[in-house]
Amino acid sequence: MLTKRIIPCLDVKEGRVVKGVQFVNLRDAGDPVELAAFYDEQGADELVFLDISASHEGRETMVDVVEEVAGTLAIPFTVGGGINTLEDMKRILRAGADKVSLNTAAVTRPELIREGADFFGSQCIVVAIDAKWDDTLSSWFVYTHGGRRKTERDVITWAQEAVSQGAGELLVTSMDEDGEKQGFDEALTKKVSEAVSVPVIASGGAGNQQHFYDVFTNGKADAALAASIFHYRETSVAEVKKFLREKGLEIR
């Protein structure tokens, strides 16, 4: 069994880390370079850096910030936001990232996943899926452009297609739970985890240590990502890991 991973997330806008609720009402959470160094020292297994307005604003990810953050880290580092071409991937990986995260561009042109996987290997390609429940259709749908645009794609179908194109990992964010701190969407995570053969990172809703345990056991997640509870020091990566080990989970 793969050991479970704890991954802090830096949502970056205009060079600052921000956090909101259900992708809106963003507030400042600090400097990305300082936070990256802090999480490295804390024992985070990986770090995710998402330039959350790059796709919406139609621009490239901030390579200079990526370089600075990468320079402070000894742990794997995933970067996403505004990555639209193979050249964009090359630029981000050269800047120091270990993996790239594709979202909007992959939905628009799924072949981009295959191009990246063929060139760098599937282990470098993370497909991020922003998912929101639709009561009328009783299913989760994929959203793009930082959660601003609904697509007609069913989340489970898209997850399977992304993996068939070469995604080595999926980062699944529940827009419904994002920032609410009421727990991860275990049903969504479980459904995706059972539908694909690659690791699934759960995102959206972490409010306490128990929530991590629940999404690992009930949601079958391979990793869990959180932002605000770490940024605002409500708990720490080290405390979460200690709690999970005491509960008997294999933690990296």
Automatic annotation (TrEMBL):
Belongs to the HisA/HisF family. One of its GO terms (cellular component) is cytoplasm. The keyword Iron-sulfur does not apply. NCBIfam families: hisF (TIGR00735). This is Imidazole glycerol phosphate synthase subunit HisF. Its EC number is 4.3.2.10. Keywords: Amino-acid biosynthesis, Cytoplasm, Histidine biosynthesis, Lyase. GO terms for molecular function: imidazoleglycerol-phosphate synthase activity; lyase activity. Pfam families: His_biosynth. The lineage of its organism: Bacteria, Bacillati, Bacillota, Bacilli, Bacillales. It comes from Salipaludibacillus agaradhaerens (Bacillus agaradhaerens). Pathway: Amino-acid biosynthesis; L-histidine biosynthesis; L-histidine from 5-phospho-alpha-D-ribose 1-diphosphate: step 5/9.
